[in-house]
Amino acid sequence: MNKKAVVAMAFAAAAFIAPQWAAAKAGPANVDAARIAASQKDGANWLSHGRTYAEQRYSPLAKINDHNVDRLGLAWFADLDNDRGLEATPIVVDGVLYATLAWSRVFAADAATGKKLWEFDPGVEKSKGRHACCDVVNRGVAVWKGKVYVGTIDGRLIALDASSGKQIWSAQTTDNTLAYTITGAPRVVNGKVIIGNGGAELGVRGYFSAYDANSGKMAWRFYVVPGDPSKPQESPELEKALKTWNGEWWKYGGGGTAWNAMAYDPQLNLLYVGTGNGSPWNRQIRSPEGGDNLYLSSIVAVNADTGRMVWHYQTTPGDSWDFTATQDIILADMEINGKKRKVLMQAPKNGFFYVLDRQTGELLSAEKFGKVTWAERVDLKTGRPVETPGARYEKDPSVQWPGPFGAHNWQPMSFSPKTGLAYIPYHELPFVYSNGAKDFHYRPGAWNLGSGEENFTAFPREVASGALVAWDPVKQKAAWTAPYAFHWNGGTMATGGNLVFQGTADGRFVAYSADAGKKLWEFAAQTGVMAGPVTYSVGGKQYVAVMAGWGGAAGLIGGEATLAPGVRNISRLLVFALDGKEALPPIPVKKVVYTRIPQPVQASPETIAHGSRIFHTTCAMCHGVGAVSGGIIPDLRFSSDATRNAFDEIVLKGALHARGMASFGDILTGADLADVKAYIMDKEYADYMKSKEQRDKQNAQR
User: Fold this and answer.
1) By residue range, what is the domain housing residue 645?
2) Which residue of 115, 504, 518, 620 pairs with 616 in a disulfide if CB–CB is 3.0 to 4.6 A?
3) Rounded distance, CA 382 to CA 363, Å?
4) Distance of alpha carbon 50 from alpha carbon 343, whole angstroms
């Protein structure tokens, strides 16, 4: 039996591998602080989310290098029981690979052969997917002293036995009646598991917490934004932050969710956490008289033992654009202006690349790494952006770059101490912001942005693109750029072999020379690759692995720009090595076929406009802007007549909640749903006529 058949059978079977094998070869994930520190020089394992506490996503391994990467081939692959986006960074310890799937499921596999060791399903109630703004994804696990830790989409933090996958303890970290979710990977610092949460778009108050790694008991919690000002605040930091808020923000949640970025300096004992956008997005609603709204869109440095803040830096004061600072935080030591500095680097959504002194929070530099129109520059004396006139859309709608997808989103960037360059997955996509404060009505459980929900009607293909940007953080300029035709490309990894790896939205996995940006190798992955790759060695042999599976925010929110790459979700774990000989099976071509000829909708423009607004504040985050699905969730333009006739049962009564389609009967009426249906059918007809015109034109040219 060949290796391909063995791997396929192993991942299809539910049975666990014999405990004797696990005890003898894998054992518990024997990881502690000393071992993570030692891995700075030893690249055999990938022990933490960013490989080390510095989160550089750089490996010193060099057996695969710029001279022989053309020999890189598929060593093995695993077809995964998964039909939603894959965003996890695998963890690899002593020849065992741990990773997560959608719905917060976890599996462990032999890192050299792909043989599955165990799997764990936390049994998330599928209707919780309604609260996941950006797909029911998970970015990975943490490991520590024989345990594997995962955060679940319904807000639990679960500890598993690393040798068997059996649950040891579970802690509910959120109020599950609210729209909190967890998609980010935990980190373990000083015996404490750090976990944040998401959900700001749907109206929650952000925080991150530390739990004892052995018992699951909460050690401390840091709230990002103040609560009700009539009540005592949880910390002196929040009392200070109160002065930067006004209005009744706490009724809308406030936002500031810490859903992704963390890094740790063991010498300073400082944990660095990136915080998110406001809730609602539009500051004119949550804080109508202005203010910086601390600690939204900030980097906060806290004492890892106590959770007390040491310093903070706000990248986007009074954020009104969804410019989160939840993008990767990377630590490094480098010479700046002739002086050795301990620095922190971040390229958040707002399009500026920040270099800070990580001891003090002092801003050292900040420059645009892409197209930015909302601000002219960052004033290095004040540390504040110099905003362009009209950027806050207080009176007139404003087209801004970047938009809510950001110039850089969650897709991991990396840094090579060998080249001194950071490798940024850059997205270029604008957005039309408009002031919805006058007509704003807060709806718990729905998108409450107040800044242009109605503009989520199309992401035109022509205005969307991407690139891999190799950024020099000392010179604060691009060293080289590899342009892409599409946005939402994957995370990056740099290696000691002078290589940088990245997956792409159009289904490729690519290797470039890290110093010069020359493309040296690529592999047809058959699906969009978003996740960050890793590399490791087993028995002296180096491997490169990546989770491949299209989805996430772009795959769900969709639109013409997301459909343009022409990929769909095929969920796999792909593992490469020199002279790998495996091959992926061919995939059938899937074309959109109209099963009926749409007819004009007999509804008023006002009805269709209302249906569009309801759709884009309730349905679009899964079924796509402009009712154009990104290919992950069913495209409602092509629903059968039977499905449309059952809309009331499905949408208002939750007939399909077990499949992830929750009831929206708490915020929608039958009249609302009728208008939504009219909008979808009108869009179906318009898109059909557009495609018909294109077909007729093509036929005439033949």
Assistant:
1) 605-701
2) 620
3) 9
4) 16
Q: Sort 633 into a burial class: Cβ within 10 Å, 0-12 / 13-18 / 19+.
A: buried
Kind and range of the H or E element at 434? Answer: none
Mind listing the pLDDT tens digit for each residue in 274-313?
999 999 999 999 999 999 999 999 999 999 999 999 999 9
CATH (domain of 680) = 1.10.760.10
Q: Is 612 a domain residue?
A: yes
Left if phi > 0, otherwise alpha if psi is -120 to 50, otherwise beta: which for 92?
beta
Q: pLDDT digit string (tens) for 322-332?
A: 999 999 999 99
pLDDT at res. 9: 38
* Domain assignment present for 5: no
pLDDT given for residue 22 in this prediction: 35
User: What is the predicted pLDDT for the residue at 23?
Assistant: 33
The pair phi, psi for residue 36, each rounded to 5°, is: -65, -40
Q: What is the DSSP string of 510-530?
A: EEEETTT--EEEEEE-SS---
Give me the amino acid identity at 328: D
Task: Identify the pLDDT of residue 412.
Answer: 98
Q: Token pair for residue 18?
A: 């014999």
Domains contained in the chain, number: 1
The pTM for the full model equals 0.92
Can you give the pLDDT at residue 504? 97
Preceding omega of 404 cis (within 30 degrees of 0)? no
The answer to whether 275 and 256 have CB atoms below 8 angstroms apart is: yes
Q: Does the residue 556 lie in any domain?
A: no
For the chain, residues with pLDDT lower than 50 are 1-26
Catalytic residue of the set 135, 292, 322, 672: 322
Considering only CA atoms, which of 549, 501, 538, 541 is closest in space to residue 523? 501
Q: Could you read off the pLDDT of 538-579 as tens digits, one per residue? A: 999 999 999 999 998 887 776 666 676 778 899 999 999 999
* Residue 42 a catalytic site member: no
Residues 47, 54, 84, 560, Cα dihedral to 10°: -150
Sign of the C-alpha dihedral computed for residues 413, 426, 524 and 419 taken in this order: negative
Instruction: Return the pLDDT at 456.
Output: 66
CB 330 within 8 A of CB 346: yes
DSSP-derived secondary structure letter, 37: H
Note whether 144 and 213 are within 8 A (CB). yes
Nearest to 507 by CA among 489, 521, 527, 522: 527
Q: Which amino acid type is present at position 352?
A: F
pLDDT of residue 439: 85
**Domain annotation covers residue 689:** yes
